[in-house]
Amino acid sequence: MALRRVYLDHSATTPVDRRVVEAMLPYLTEKFGNASSVHFFGQEARAAVDRARREVASMVGARPNEVVFLSGGTEANNLAIRGVAEASENYGRHIITSEIEHSSVRGICDALEKKGWKITRLPVYDDGIVRIEDVRASVRPDTVLITVMLANNEIGTIQPIAEIGSLVRKEREKGNRHLRFHTDAVQAAGRMHVDVESLGCDMLSLSAHKLYAPKGAGALFLRRGVRLVAQNVGGHQERERRAGTESVAGIVAFGAAARIAGEELDERVAHVRALRNRFEAGVAARIEDVVFNGNRERRLPHLSNISFRYIEGEGLLINLDLQGVAVSTGSACSSGSLEPSPVIRAIGRDDELARGSIRFSFGKDNSVEDVDYVLEVLPRAVANLRRLSPLYQKATQARACESETV
Ligand SMILES: Cc1ncc(COP(=O)(O)O)c(C=O)c1O
Questions:
Q1: Any idea what DSSP says for residue 237?
Q2: Domain 18-261 - what CATH class?
Q3: How far is CA 123 from CA 96, 171, 270, 332, in A?
Q4: Does the pLDDT of residue 265 top 70, yes or no?
Q5: How many CB atoms lie within 10 A of CB 11?
Q6: Residue 334 has pLDDT above 70, yes or no
Q7: Minimum-distance ligand 1 atom for the alpha carbon of 149
Q8: Which residue ranges make up each domain of the chain?
Q9: Which atom in ligand 1 lies closest to the alpha carbon of residue 208?
Q10: Confidence of residue 337 (pLDDT cuts 50, 70, 90)
C-alpha cells in the first residue's frame, strides 16, 4: 500500500501554487532580461518587477515605493534592524525586542549586544504575548528601535503590534523623534489581515516561501522617510537600499502569490482554522497528558503547538515521518544534545514539556482526510514512545498507587 504523505509543516515552508509557477515561468525562459538593462528585454523585466511591487504593497496596505525586494525574511530582518541601528547610533544604542523572536532577529540583537548595544528582551508570560505596559516601561530616551514580531513562528501567538505602533507615535510626539518600529510579519502574511497603516509600523518583513511562492524572495516594507544604512552595497538596485541583480522570476512569483493570498485570505483562514480545530479536538479526546502551548484565541489560524508529556519531540517527529506525516519541533540539535525550544521555555514550560513539543501547521491544500489520518497515527506513535519511557512508567505506577489509596 502506498504511504500517505501529509505535510503539516507550512510554517517552515509552503508548496509553490501552480498559478504562481505559471506566472513566473516566462521570466525563466523568454523574458529573461536583467531589470537594470535599458533595452527591451530589460524593460520587460523591469515592468514585471514593478507590477510585483504593486501586488506585494497592496497585500499589506503600503505604497509600491515603500517595498524593497530582497532574498527573504532573514535578509529583511537584517536590513531593518542593522540598517536602522547603524543609521541611528548617534542618537542612542538601545533596542527593545521580545523573548520569542525568530532566530534571525535574536541573532542580530545578540550580535549588536556584543558590540555594546543595550538590548531589552520583553517577557511573554504563559500565554506567549508581550504586554504593552512592559513595552511602555522599557522605552528610554536612548531607545532607537523596537522590534517585535507580528505572529510567532512556533506557537502562532499574535502580538499587540497596533498598540505598540500607537505607543511609538506618542513617544515621537513627546520628543523621541528617532524611535523606529519594526515588525516581522513573515508568519502572519497570508494567514491574517496585515495593514501597515493600522499596525503603525515603520518597517515590516515578508518572505515569499511562506506564501506558496518559491524560496529566495522577500521584502521589507520601509515607510517613506525612514532612514537606514543599506547592508548590501555596490549597485543601484532597489533605490540603493539593496544592491544586487533582482531575482526577477522570484519577485514575479512573490507578487502573484501576494495577490492570490489577498484574494483568498478569508477562504484560506476559514479552511485552515477548521482543520486545526478538528485536529486539536481529536488530540484532546484521544491522547492524555498533552498541553496546548500559547494563547488559544490570539494566534494564527493554521498552527497548533502541543507538548506531549514523557516523550521527546524529536522521537515523535521521526516516528510520524516514518508514517508519512511531516511536522516540526522547536528544539535545536547542538553539540549532540537537544536544546529545548527557547520559545516554549519563554512561556514557562518545564524542560520536559519544552522537549516534548511539536508544531503542526496546516495549509490551504490539506484536507479533512489528512487530519483524520494524523489522528489515527499520532495516538499510536505517542503510546509506543511512552511505553519505552521510564518517566511514563514511573508516572503510571504513581497514578495506580494513588487510585488504590483513594
Ligand atoms: C517569523 C519568521 N521570521 C523570519 C523567518 C526567516 O525567513 P526566510 O526563511 O525567508 O529567511 C522565518 C522563517 O521561518 C520566520 O518564521
A1: G
A2: alpha beta
A3: 11, 21, 31, 21
A4: yes
A5: 25
A6: no
A7: 1
A8: 6-12+265-400, 18-261
A9: 10
A10: low
